[in-house]
Amino acid sequence: MNKVVPTAAEAVADVPDGATLAVGGFGLSGVPNVLIQALYERGVGGLGVVSNNCGALDSGLAVLLAAGRIARVTGSYIGANKEFARQYLAGELEVEMIPQGTLAERLRAGGAGIPAFYTPAGVGTQVADGGLPWRYDGSGGVALASPPKEVREFDGTEYVLERGIRTDFALVRAAKGDRHGNLVFGKSSRNFNPLAAMAGRVTIAEVEELVEPGAIDPDAVHLPGIFVQRVVALTPEQAADKQIERRTVTAPAARGTVNG
User: What Gene Ontology molecular-function terms does this entry list (predicted)?
Assistant: First the structure.
């Protein structure tokens, strides 16, 4: 039951070229940076990644993307990642963009053993009708487009059939975890990390604080250890290394201004 692995390098040692990965994180929150860096140092490539976004500010999945290690991305947000956009438009990267809620449910469904489900999100658009550019040819044309999906009516409303997602591995980051793999996520990092963890056949969690079994109140567990195969305890320095995507401060009040 002790799922702790001494190092991140050992935890990802069996991830091969061409593997599919579900990766947690929301923006810069809850991104498994240490595990991603270990994958980068191993030199694996041709990866198929399922994640909300593909890294930002040269961190997270952006490290693998910039090195040309990612072949396909299934996600819901490109954001301000200029290298992501460049590779996509140049035909170097295959991209399946789907609604964010659909992505979350596809991951959860895969982890719950549900092969497919119906949702109204995307009905009447290229999400359902097909034709979304998955890969460009580098000259502005579409080399590969999404296929049409089954649409069915229930009680007068149309729904599109979406497949659950299962991946070879999942990489997640938790605020706290025990040796059995029970995990607790902090705030926004809970958005996609539990879902990504459920979708992986082999799930690897880096935890900011490792505790003994029983130290986490069962009612406080966000993801039970049944979904987690390996746990890596971060050093205090690794746990504290968190970037801020956009720092916003309030402009100082003009000299002599009186607040009412």
Answer: transferase activity
